[in-house]
Amino acid sequence: MNLIQKSLFLLSLVAPLGVACATAQSRGTGQRLTYDVVSIKPGDAGARVAWRVTDDLSDSRNVLVRNYLMNAFNLRFDDQLAGQPHWADTTSYTIQAKIGEHTVQTFQSLSHAEQWKLRAQMDLAVLEDDFHLKWHRELRMRPVYKLVCTKCDVKMPLHPAGKPDSWTFHEGHLHAQAVSIRDLIALILAEDADVDRVVLDRTQRPGLYDIDLHWMPSNEQKEDSADPAIFIALREQLGLELRPTTAPIEVIVIDAIERPSMQ
Questions:
Q1: What is the pTM of this model?
Q2: Cα–Cα distance between 85 and 258 in angstroms, integer?
Q3: In the sheet where 209-214 sits, what is the strand order?
């Protein structure tokens, strides 16, 4: 997972707005929930990439079209996307998308996860409307990891029913109560670049667990740390194992995409 893909998890704004010709238009109302106003400008080659989201604004700067696609479809790895033209991998845009007051009120009634899912759908609408994106889903063979339980029944206790849940994570130390295997996978993918492919849950453990896990993320290596790499930590501390294999996974295939018109 590259830097911009992780930055979609940890959004920040650090770059000035580029100057160039732009397209800005009001959105009509329809069945899809869309941004009210969208402004698209060519990116500034060599400038820093940034992405900031507030209650009523999505402000992305100098982002490659490929990464807009990755974000809209919630993809983490490049091999989950196929068929995009070369220019989509090398051309960046700055997109500012404004949300209307009614939509802001809708967002405030949703959970954080539901908000991000809805924002991704709205970002996809920008690609479909302004970049004339056409796409479909397809199963393709890809390198993956399968997560299997070796001794997790012993090392991962089920969370007691009725007890409160909690979650703390800092520098490779996770203490979580009532966490699912799916959430654990998502955290590992976001925090450790060594886990460089899709992870398929093959544990057959659908419950919620109490987990204590400490490891040294590959992107935060410290010479004086005694914490193990994620593969070893999962096996020794939780009784879980990441096994490399290949499997059919869902891939987003780009059938057509165009550069946005500048008016």
A1: 0.80
A2: 9
A3: 166-170, 173-179, 209-214
- Amino acid type, 17: L
261 Cβ contact partners less than 8 Å away, ≥ 6 residues apart = 23
> Which tens digit of pLDDT belongs to each residue from 133-182?
999 999 999 999 999 999 988 899 999 988 888 889 988 899 999 999 99
pLDDT digits (tens, 9 = 90+) for 238-262: 999 999 999 999 999 999 999 998 6
**Which helix (DSSP H) or strand (DSSP E) does residue 230 occupy?**
helix 230-233
- Residue 235 has a CB neighbour count (10 Å cut-off) of 17
CA distance 123 to 141: 27
CB 202 within 8 A of CB 145: no
Q: DSSP secondary structure string, 122-183?
A: HHHHHHHHHS--EEEEEEEEEEEEEEEESSHHHHSPBPPTTSPPEEEEETTEEEEEEE-HHH
Instruction: DSSP letter for 243, please.
Output: E
CA distance linking residue 10 with residue 143, whole number of Å: 26
Band of pLDDT at residue 33, cut at 50, 70 and 90: confident
86 and 58 Cβ atoms separated by less than 8 Å: no
What gap in Å lies between CA 8 and CA 54, rounded to an integer? 13
For the four alpha carbons of 109, 113, 116 and 118, in that order, the dihedral sign comes to negative
